[in-house]
Design brief:
The chain is an alpha+beta fold. It has one domain. The protein is about 15% helix and about 30% strand. The chain has four helices and nine strands. The chain starts with a strand and ends in a 10-residue tail after the last strand.
Length: about 140
């Protein structure tokens, strides 16, 4: 059973967030901590543990006002991607990418086709071969495609 959870972002330009879960084994009443770093949560999904922890990950990040996010974009975990692999795409070189807090513009970003909004895809989603990659071919396409 998960008693509590905390989410820690590692910084504006750093890697992904980490999570700490306070857990209790109901059969023995023993308590402990489960520390998830660098999106190891995605690997737990394959072992069946993720569904029980998923509700805890929906809690806001420390210092954030809403759902887990990175650079102001909603964060998409592998578990959500697996539910509908055609919903999310990786856009490359689009001129309408939002600016990061650092002032720089990304060269590629996730896009939620259902909500028509940019999202932050965790590394395991970006590495997934099922993720469609969509380069920009419009009037303002970048030269480095």
């Amino acid at each position: 059973m998960v008693d509590a959870s905390l989410r820690f972002d590692s910084g504006i330009d750093a890697g992904d967030a980490s999570h700490i879960f306070a857990i209790t084994d109901r059969s023995t009443n023993r308590r402990g901590l489960l520390i998830e770093a660098f999106d190891v949560f995605d690997e737990l999904h394959k072992r069946g543990s993720a569904r029980r922890l998923e509700a805890c990950l929906a809690e806001p990040a420390i210092g954030a006002s809403d759902v887990p996010s990175r650079n102001g974009l909603r964060k998409i975990y592998k578990i959500e991607f697996d539910d509908d692999t055609e919903r999310f795409v990786l856009r490359i070189g689009y001129p309408d990418f939002p600016k990061r807090r650092s002032g720089r513009t990304a060269t590629m970003l996730g896009f939620d086709t259902a909500e028509q909004s940019y999202v932050w895809l965790v590394p395991s989603v970006v590495r997934d071969a099922r993720l469609a990659r969509v380069p920009y071919h419009g009037e303002f396409a970048t030269d480095d495609e």
